[in-house]
TrEMBL record:
The chain crosses the membrane at residues 57-75. It holds the Pfam family DUF5808. Residues 33-56 form the DUF5808 domain. It comes from Flavobacterium bomense. This is DUF5808 domain-containing protein. It comes from the Bacteria. Keywords: Membrane, Transmembrane, Transmembrane helix.
Amino acid sequence: MVDQDNPSQETLEKWSKDPDNWIWGVFYYNKGDKRILPPKKNAWMGNTINFANPKSVLFLIGALLFFAFVTFSILK
């Protein structure tokens, strides 16, 4: 049984490598994973968004709004 609040490192790696948790092999979608920015399939490539976690989606929207604000502020 997997402890959803504190999964082991082995479970986290298993989730990242499971192809069923990747939509089209690009978008990470795992309802059991509570991390906002889990590592990509190849951890050396950085992190990705867990689209099954509403906090992750809000983080992405916030980051996009921030960069849009900075861009428009510079252009004015």
